[in-house]
Amino acid sequence: MSPNGNGFKRADFDAIAASIRPGARVLDLGCGDGVLLKYLKGARGVTGYGVEIDDAGVLGCVTNGVDVIQSDLERGLSDFESGSFDYVVLSQTLQAMMDGERIINDMLRVAREGIVTFPNFGYWMNRLQVLGGRMPVSDNLPFEWHNTPNVHLCTITDFEVFCARHGVKILERKVLTGGRAVTVLPNLLGSLAVYRFQRA
Amino acid sequence: MDTGIASKSVGTVTPQTASFAEPLSLRSGAVMDAYDLVYETYGKLNAERSNAVLVCHALNASHHVAGQYAGVPGSTGWWDNMIGPGKPLDTDRFFVIGVNNLGGCHGSTGPASVNPKTGRPWGADFPVVTVEDWVATQARLADRLGISRFAAVMGGSLGAMQALAWTYLHPERVRHALVIACAPNLSAQNIAFNEVARQAIVTDPDFLGGHYYERDTRPTRGLRVARMIGHITYLSDDEMASKFGRQLKNGKLNYTFEPEFEIESYLRHQGGKFSEYFDANTYLRITKALDYFDPARDHGGSLAKALAPAKANFLVVSFTTDWRFSPQRSREIVKALLDNRCGVSYAEINAPHGHDAFLLDDSRYHGLVTAYFERIYRENAR
User: Fold this and answer.
1) Which residues 110-149 of chain A have a CB within 8 Å of chain B?
2) Do B313 and A67 touch (CB under 8 A)?
3) Which residue of A has its CA nearest to B351?
């Protein structure tokens, strides 16, 4: 599953890597061809597995020397024992999940901390396109309305309201645009959100 | 299944025999005082002796994994599409060993061999052998060949059970295990199929309680039925439908009990072919080995505990239409490996062919095995 089409950019990797303790055990959900885990192995010395549904992604992981479990995230994480990881990463995939609440809960069962990244629907360029009467299409949201896998797009504010209502404590937030950190008006000026969180 | 001669082959191969005189205690309590193992090797063992790959065979196969025998048409090895120069298991890089298991009927000591104590064929007196027993004999062969640690042990179906057993019986001797179309034990349904097959054999009047060799007869009718049953379970419903459907042999119904549907003559053909070369006593024992395989049994039913000693990295592969060893069974193995924090990759190949898919040339499947062996090769080169 690669709902953002372009895959990862280096800045996203750095933002996630900086949130992860060296040597940690990491589960990367919707890992694609495993480049993030490969990067984290090199940059932070992590161990762990990717989970990926797509054949090409699984092959990519094996080629990249990343352990991968071919599985549909919509089936949940029942293959993984509670508390068996330090971090579960869900990168650019939450917006494509049928049941976002379930996956967040499952993430916090399997690991102490979760990390999600998602395209911020509240980003001004997206708002502008909606204002112009069209669904947004951008680098982070490269699909047309009729072929997008993204079924649950949200804004930074939406996600934080969700966390508050569902007993999820946000530990860290990074907002990026074009790879650069955004500190002012993040829900308007940020195109990508990175959150680290735990059970409240 | 004959996969045909591929463009690149290990070429002409010759089996070898290793004789073992040190007694071997079997799981059943029986002791084999001495035995022979027939094996083949392809490729070259490197100076570090670190590039050896053991390929374990399933029910009806043998040590003849790849290549052909000189002057024998149609003698292509059973996994020739997987193993050879430039193939997924590349014999230009790896030293590959195929071995006929103890109790087999392709040259290793088995029920048709002469029992030194009686001077007559073992027949029914040949002990029941298990997956763990086979691994013990394979380990002795590895010792003989000077291989202390395999780069990989690989197998499909029953062969995969042996690969899995290697990882917990000899954790230090296996760097990687390729466990393909496997199950952590047989389901009741699986055991049931095996029992029907065995009953077909033992109730054949020519079976003679297993001592048919001396009477110069063979229970071919029973074997034929056993193979037909097995064959049904190796194919998916869809595969059978697309291959045969309700096609008639002669275009019309004859209202007789002769084969009229294509599937009937196909099964008879497969059964007939099999009964000509396979030994009934071996078939009985191999199906029993399948039934008995259950590593969790010795660990209070916990597969995770059974696999706890494993140190290998794993590639586990299942096929979506395999209803004999379904993906769910492979997932049980994967879960147990995850629980033990083993290195494991798991792929579920969407293939229409049922259990037999592990023998076929599917590009996603072979691409994955190629990539995995590439990784093993890279690690080895470091």
Assistant:
1) none
2) yes
3) A55
Query: Which value does ipTM take for this structure?
Result: 0.93
* φ, ψ at B121 (rounded to 5°): -55, 145
Q: DSSP E strands: which ranges in chain A?
A: 25-29, 47-52, 68-70, 85-91, 111-119, 168-177, 180-181, 192-199
Q: What is the pLDDT along chain B (382 residues), one digit of tens a residue?
A: 444 444 589 999 999 999 999 999 999 999 999 999 999 999 999 999 999 999 999 998 999 999 999 999 999 999 999 999 999 999 999 999 999 999 999 999 999 999 999 999 999 999 999 999 999 999 999 999 999 999 999 999 999 999 999 999 999 999 999 999 999 999 999 999 999 999 999 999 999 999 999 999 999 999 999 999 999 999 999 999 999 999 999 888 999 999 999 999 999 999 999 999 999 999 999 999 999 999 999 999 999 999 999 999 999 999 999 999 999 999 999 999 999 999 999 999 999 999 999 999 999 999 999 999 999 999 988 7
CA distance A163 to chain B (A): 29
B157 in catalytic set: yes
Distance CA A108, CA B246 (A): 52
